[in-house]
Amino acid sequence: MKVFLSAVEGSAPREALLSIIDKVKFKYNLMSYYYIKQKNEDFAAKIRDNSELVIIDSGAHSFQKGKRVDWIEYTKEYAEWIKTFDRPNVVGYFEMDVDNIIGYDKVLELRKILENVSNKIIPVWHKNRGLKEYKKMCKDYHDRVIAITGFKNEDIKDEQYLMFLKYARKYNCKVHCLGMTRKKILDKVPFDFSDSSSWLQYTIYGRSLDGRKLPKIKGEEDRKNQFAHNYLLAMKMQEYYYNKWRKVNKD
Amino acid sequence: MEIINKKINDLKPYENNPRFNDEAVEYVANSIKEFGFKVPIIIDKNNVIVAGHTRYKASMELGLKEVPCIIADDLNEEQIKAFRLADNKVSEKASWNYELLDEELDNILNIDMSEFDFNNIDIDWGNVSDLTNETYEEPQHTMLECPSCHHIDRDIHFKKVEDEE
User: Fold this and answer.
1) If interface means Cβ-Cβ distance under 8 Å, which residues of chain A face chain B?
2) Which of B19, B132, B138 to mutate to test the interface with A (most CBs of A within 10 A)?
3) In terms of domains, do B114 and B138 share one?
4) What does CATH list as the number for A2-245?
5) HEC sequence for chain B
6) Which residues in chain B are contacts of A164 at CB distance < 8 A?
7) Which end of chain A is more exposed for a tag (fewer CB within 10 A), N or C?
8) Above 70 in pLDDT, residue B12?
């Protein structure tokens, strides 16, 4: 399982990553187009070029929190940007899965805009689409990446993830479980990909990812070092889950 | 370099040891059981452990009375403090070449390497239910409406506020 580290675009995490980028080859990073387009394009390119793999979120998660845009315009911009950003180490680009705001039919229209420019668009299944649509997605996207959500009790109950995975494997799909950070599940369910911003959350709350309390920060330099410290620990976590599931996932 | 056997009860763990090692104890104990005590514990002249806290805990767990030790009497107090950290730190820099690791593991046939946390974890997909309308049950949510702005959302997005009297 490859756990992509997310939330790297904020100003403090950005500075932290830039401070170690020449010393460390990053593994897997997830960035959001919503934040990249806010003057972070150069940074995103740097992260891409120094990462083993990168995956791009459409920004749909930001829209769940109330932000609104002109959907067609935004998606067209996203598509144009994909054309310039794409490299072989970019696993894919999540679709605009804003079903709960504009409905699935409109989401399909937006997907079409994206698929006109790339064959790496990742559909994200939500329960409103129905089980039939999940199965259709696995068939249509055989040998490619698909996504489900990992937020507790949102679309899938914890004990049902393995069933979803089993079905996807029939069509050789790789499954990304969005926002799945719960160790209890990651230790039992061999998703191909997931993502985590725990390294950031822990730093914000003054904790080291290994559980220790971080010393009180005395300035920006300390703050940057603490973000970098937890990012590096998160890379150990990436190694742990890769190693744990690499045989099951044939990585 | 002399290796001497010391009574385990005479050894003193360093009170400020900054490493969490409890999760590793079981595997180290398995290693000692399988292969014997091959890496001595490093102690200072007062029997305080410099390197080998996990081996010490594993030995206690195995009920060993004596363990092989090396006394680092050629190091001063500061060097001992530094070595204690450095010995742990350098291991963080190493990582696995998985291709070579698999080759090595494939050649070990008669020793259960999962005893040392080399997992051979697998999923029995045959035992996982098929995904059908009968086996999939949609999670149910409680929806709430904000009394102020009338925004409707899942209960987890609302915070309980005590009444202000």
Assistant:
1) 127, 131, 134-135, 153-157, 160, 162-167, 169, 190, 210-211, 236, 239, 243-248
2) B138
3) yes
4) 3.20.20.70
5) CCCEEEEHHHCECCCCCCCCCHHHHHHHHHHHHHHCCCCCEEECCCCEEEECHHHHHHHHHHCCCEEEEEECCCCCHHHHHHHHHHHHHHHHCCCCCHHHHHHHHHCCCCCCHHHHCCCCCCCCHHHCCCCCCCCCCCCCCCEEECCCCCCEEEHHHCCCCCCCC
6) 131
7) C
8) yes
C-alpha closest to that of A147 among A180, A123, A171: A123
Q: Is the dihedral of CA A132, A96, A167, A184 positive or negative?
A: negative
For residues B82 and B121, membership in a common domain is answered with no
pLDDT tens per residue, range B73-84: 999 999 999 999
Is B162 part of a structural domain of the chain?
no
Contact A13/A6 with Cβ under 8 angstroms? no
> Which residue among A163, A236, A248 sits closest to B136, beta carbon to beta carbon?
A163
| CB < 8 Å to A155, chain B | 139
Q: Tens digit of pLDDT for each residue in A145-191? A: 999 999 888 899 999 999 999 999 999 999 999 999 999 999 999 99
- Sheet strands side by side (includes B41-43): B4-7, B66-71, B41-43, B49-51
Q: Output the CA–CA distances (angstroms, integers) from residue A171 to A2, A123, A166, A222, A236, in the order listed.
A: 20, 15, 9, 48, 31
CB contact under 8 A, B129 and A247: no
> ipTM value of the model?
0.88
Range of the domain at B110: 98-157
Number of domains in chain B: 2
Q: Residues B75, B81, B85, B88: is their CA dihedral positive or negative?
A: positive
Residues of A in contact with B95 (CB under 8 A): 239
Asked if the C-beta of B138 comes within 8 angstroms of chain A's C-beta atoms, the answer is: yes
Q: Tokens representing A43?
A: 């940074």
Distance (Å, whole) CA B50 – CA B39: 13
* B131:A134 CB<8 A: yes
**Closest chain B CA to residue A157:** B139
- Residue B15: CATH number of its domain: 3.90.1530.10
